[in-house]
Structure prediction request, 132 residues.
Amino acid sequence: MRRHGTPIVLHDPDGLIELRHDDETALAAATAEAVDQVHQRRATAEWLVNRAIRRGPDAEAVHLYLGFALGPLVRLLRVEHCPWRHDFGLRYLAEDLPGAVAARVATLLPGSGDLAELSGECFAWMDELLSR
Prediction:
């Protein structure tokens, strides 16, 4: 239920709608797998992103930055702050993350600064989260 919020049932005269709670075991397994995946890809991800940035600030560099730097960082933050929506990507950040964390993520969006510097900040924050 937490994943998309609690539904408001307006019409169910036969009582057919059943509210189901999240499967905590499945959620724990999915978040553990997400963290492990980020950890396993970490070194290669940084290499791919930085190689693309060195080639020139183009669509490929931004694409790889979003997919291999910012995206996995946000996934780790979601695992920590709202695990039931760990796989929601950049959606609902302002609602799901603490204000200061969401604001810090916003400073890492492409266009907020030099992509190489953003990449460095992103991977440093990722390392901090993975070390916990």
Summary: The two ends are 28 Å apart (CA to CA). The chain has five helices and no strands. The CA atoms of residues 92 and 129 lie 20 Å apart.
